[in-house]
Specification:
Helix content is about 40%, strand content about 15%. The protein is α/β, with parallel strands linked by helices. About 45% of the residues are buried.
């Protein structure tokens, strides 16, 4: 039964080689308050499997047997931006907004609803972003590794100082705006980095909406940092007008420039040193990287609800 009282709910899930985590991500979405409140006939979940070489598509189709509102798109193009553009085009015309989620994170049950509500209540904004919270925030401090402690305390500080930007793990976008401003069709520029550089004044952070992720280990941290540096370089080269804001955004979140060292616990300070070491290694690796460096990051996967 179609519910005309509520706005149509459209959720997009780009997925590439996510057979280990995509089922849990989808289960979390269909258990969310946004999904339940929308009601049958007034919601959709579009998974765009892009360039996968594993069983992601098969898993999603199987899940679609019990969730008829789930649609699976497949493309050989291995790019998240292209997947987002495809989802935007394929979305139900009734959808005025689309919530995009990564396939390896877990949104809090009310995160999607709060993010979409924040966007709808601010008509001048074209994007609204949830906040990424390390799962280790719920670990007793004594059980956190130095790297985990650093992540937890850095996010807490950035939230307090309102330094957080749009994150690709969970955000809502105005569909008509995204149709007229499609993301660049390249693997080398991340969706969140591009949006933050091009449309910073059109983004509304929703601090009450939480998306959970697992802090990466040092090896995966290096891989992530390398990818981010390659993306930043590609963004500035392809869109020179973003250079000033890209540099400013990067500096505002740099641990070397954030005045939060004195707030860190001793364990987190060790994590900061390890983070800076990973940053140096990633800088060297990024200079040699000339193509897509999307890593297979296993340590940051969330496979079951917590």
């Amino acid at each position: 039964m179609i519910n005309f009282m509520n706005p149509f709910l459209s959720i997009g899930l780009p997925a590439r080689n996510e057979e280990e985590s995509v089922e849990q991500a989808i289960n979390s979405i269909v258990k969310s308050t946004a999904w339940k409140n929308a009601g049958e006939g007034n919601r959709e979940l579009i998974v765009c499997v892009n360039g996968s070489s594993d069983k992601t598509a098969q898993i999603c189709r199987k899940l679609g047997q019990r969730t008829p509102e789930l649609r699976v798109l497949e493309t050989s193009h291995s790019g998240k931006n292209n997947a987002i553009n495809q989802i935007t085009k394929a979305a139900n015309p009734r959808a005025q907004e689309i919530y995009f989620s990564d396939a390896d994170v877990i949104p809090q049950r009310n995160a999607i609803e709060r993010t979409l509500t924040g966007l709808r209540e601010n008509p001048k904004m074209k994007f609204a972003s949830a906040i990424c919270i390390p799962l280790e925030s719920y670990k007793p401090p004594k059980h956190r590794t130095p790297t985990e402690a650093f992540y937890v305390e850095a996010v807490r500080f950035a939230k307090k100082k309102e330094l957080l930007q749009l994150v690709g793990q969970g955000y809502a976008a105005n569909r008509s705006f995204l149709l007229s401003h499609p993301l660049p069709n390249t693997n080398l520029i991340g969706d969140d980095r591009y949006i933050n550089a091009k449309f910073k004044n059109l983004i509304k952070p929703i601090y009450s909406a939480k998306v959970f992720y697992r802090s990466p280990n040092i090896g995966d941290l290096v891989r992530q940092r390398t990818r981010q540096k390659v993306q930043r370089r590609a963004l500035v080269e392809q869109f020179p007008e973003t250079k000033e804001l890209t540099i400013k955004n990067t500096k505002s979140l740099s641990p070397r420039r954030m005045d939060f060292f004195k707030y860190l616990t001793p364990k987190a300070r060790v994590g900061l040193v390890l983070n800076q070491g990973a940053e140096l290694v990633a800088t060297v690796k990024a200079k040699r990287a000339q193509k897509d460096v999307w890593p297979k990051v296993k340590s940051a996967k969330l496979r079951r609800r917590r």
